[in-house]
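Batch job 17 of 40 flagged for manual review because the log was empty.
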Amino acid sequence: MLKRTLLPLLALLLAAPLLAAEKTVALDWVGCGITKKAFMAELAKAYERRTGIHIVIEGGGATKGIRRVADRTVPMGGSCRPKILGAPEEIRARMNPVAWDALAVIVHPDNPVSDITLDQLRKVYEGKITNWKALGGPDKPIDLLIRRGKLSGVGRTLRQLVFNDFDKEFASDHVYKSSGPLEKAVETDPWALAVTGVSSARKRKVKLLSLNGKQPDYEHIRSGEYLLYRPLYITSNPAHPQYREVKRFINFAHSREGRAIIRAAGAVPYLDALNLIRKQREQWQEARELVRR
C-alpha cells in the first residue's frame, strides 16, 4: 500500500522541474527602432516587475516586426506602419495599436528655422526646395536625410500622408539604413533636415520644427491638430505558442499603468485619442487634395 502511494508521488516530484520549465519566463520582441525607443524598454521593465517575465528587445525595423511574427519566428513585435495589403509575408500578423506617434521634422539644434509648412516639406522631398533661404534660414544647401527603401514605417507613412504615393522617390543621396543612424547624423550636421518618429526624436539632441504652426506635443497629437500622426503597433500571432502571454502584455500596455508609462515616454496612448481613428480618414483625404493642387 505504501509503495503504491509513494510511486505516483515520486513521479509527480520528478515531473515538477519539467512543468516549471514550461512556464513562460521570457518573451522575444523584435521591431521598429521608433517603437523600441518610444516606450518598449519602459513597458518591458514594468511588466517584468509585475510578472517576473523578461522581455528580450531587438530592433530591426517595422517590416521585421511584422514578418518575423507572421512566420512565428518570434512571439511579439513592434511596427510603426500597418500591414501591406496583399503581402503574403504579413497576412498572419495581428496588428494591435497601443499608441499614437507623430512624424517630426528634425534639424540641428543651432538651425535658426523653427517652422515649416506641409507644402514646403513636400517640396523639400521633391527637390523643389534645396536651400534653407527658402524656409527663412541662411543661404545654405539643405542636406535632406532619408531612410533606405520604401517599406520603413516613417518612409511609408510619409509617402502616404504627404504624397499619397507609396512609390514616391525622394530627392536625396543621403540615405540611412535605419532611423537611429539618421537621427544621429542630424545631431552633427548643422544644415540637415529629416523626418522621424517624435517619440525617438525627443531622446536626441535635435530641434523639432513646428508643422503648420503646431508642435508635435501630446495635446496637438491627441487632438489631431498636428497633421502627421500614425499608430504604433504591437504585433502578435494567435498561432504562436506564447500568444496568451503576448495578449497579457498587450492588455498591460492598455492598462492605467501601461498608459501612464507610454505617456511619460512622450507618446500618446492609443485609448487617449480614439478620435484620431476618424481623423485618419481626413488625413488621407488631405494628402490626396494636396497632391492634386
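Reviewer: the log was empty due to a logging misconfiguration, but the result itself is present. Residues 25-100+229-276 form a domain with the D-Maltodextrin-Binding Protein; domain 2 fold (CATH 3.40.190.10). Unflagging and moving on to job 18.
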